[in-house]
Structure formats: C-alpha cells, structure tokens
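Final report, closing paragraph on structural work. Over the funding period we assembled a curated collection of sequence-structure pairs, and we close with a single example.
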Amino acid sequence: MTGTKQTFAYKVVDGHPIQADVFVGAGQLPRPVLIWIHGGALISGSRNYLPEDQRAGFLQAGFTVVAIDYRLAPETKLAEIISDLKDASRWVREEGPGLFGADPERVAIMGQSAGGYLTLMTGFCLEPRPRALVAISGYGDIVGPWYSQPDPFYCGQPAISEEEARRAVGSLPISTGGNERYRFYTYCRQRGSWPIEVSGHDPLAESEFFEACCPVRNVTANYPPTLLLHGNQDTDVPYAESVAMAAALARHGVEHELITVEEGGHNFETANGGLKDPANAARFARIIAFLSRHV
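Its predicted structure, as stored:
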C-alpha cells in the first residue's frame, strides 16, 4: 500500500519552510497518526529516510504517517531543533484533523538513531504526550562518554581536519542534508565535541542545560509506553544507551519493552533487504502490534 502523499510546511522560520510528508491510506477517517523522525546525528538526513516498505506497513495497519524534517545542527542548535519537534506535533494535532483526517487523540512517535533520541524527548517535552513511542537505535543521554569523549570506532577512521569538517556545513539554517555532512559528524566523534557543536553549550561547564535534554534523566510515571529496539553490536550508538533507558522506565513503572537484536549493527532494520529479511519482518510486526495496542 503506497497511500496518497501530500507535502506541507508545518512551520516557516525566517522565510525557510520546514516540511512534512503526509501519507494517508485508504479507509475511514479520522485515523491514528504516526509521526516519524529521521536519523542522521541531528546533522544530516531528511524526511525521505523513511523506508518505503515500513511506510507501506504502517499504512496497511491503519496509520496515517507524517514524516517530518527539522532544522539541522550545527547551523541550528539543539534547543531550536526541539522547538521544531514541538511545533510539528502541535501542527499534527491542531491542523491535521482538517488537512488529512488525523485523530488528534491518537498520536504515536517513532524514530531511528537521532530520530530515536528525539522520539524519547517527546516522552516528557510534549503536552499532551504521545500515546506510544518507538525508538530504534536511540539514546537517552547525550553527554555520556560515548558522545563527549573521542570515540574509538571513529578514531580508527581517517582523521578529519577542522577545516575539512567546517566545509561540509554552512551558516544558514537548513532542514535537509546529504551524506557529505557526515564529515562534520566524524570530526565531532573523533574529538568528542558533538554535544558542544550541536547544542552550543559545554557539558562540563554548563551541565544544567543538558538536564532537560537527556530523556533518561526525565522519566516519570507519566512517560508514555515505549518500545526500544537496538543492535548489541552497534558501533555508532552504544547498545547500553537503550539498556539504560529501559532501566529508567522500569524504575518508574512505565510499560516498555527492549528488543535486543543479536549481532545487530546500527542500521539493522534496513539490512539484508529490509522487511524482506524474516528477522526484520518479525521485529516490524512487533512494532505494529505495540503501536496498535496503544494507539
């Protein structure tokens, strides 16, 4: 099922439209909505990252899918990226019923990698809160050693100079970015400077700023039901990040599940042909079941 596609600007900042693709399947309206958030370390990527086979599966399950862009770092800092996230959710709830038959009371959020991080942020920074969250290879702590110190995996790659890294990014706000921007990301990981470059704040000198930017530190009993999926051989986002998030959810009695992908890497969900792979298809069926139960 491909569904109908419409593209909207859910907000405009200084003349720059920030867009969302809305996919609506056949059937009765209103429909529950799945907001999908792309990865890319908050530095690259776009709403087009949503795999086609997953999108078709969500539509078949009865969801309207809203794949969003957001402004990217380092041109835009983390606080404003989170404001885009809030505005996208507000737009879906307030404008979605009239524009594409959204049910504003049945909204779930899902994302991969940095999109998983932003998904986990919505568990406490949005009101009303989503009905359910799904984070694939996500993370709840953005200032741990894995991000704020030089990373062994990335240090094993050819060194990126600051000059080369800065050439890969610009100064004006953008909300879609290609693979060339990964040179800047690699530079950040080799130096442990990602938190500073993305937020504009030093985690050592300004720790209070990061308290409100780390989902694992903001879980309460009111946090939405959450499904976590993570490969235990992830060389980009440590599997321990999802383990720690699951532990925080457990401490507060929040319904959750952690699906561990044995020998899985960072992009396990698109490996081996995506949903053509039986293991990926089985995990996707669990995602659909989780979302259907709560939304």
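The chain has a mean pLDDT of 97. The domain at 4-143+225-294 is CATH 3.40.50.1820 (Rossmann fold). We thank the funder for supporting this effort.
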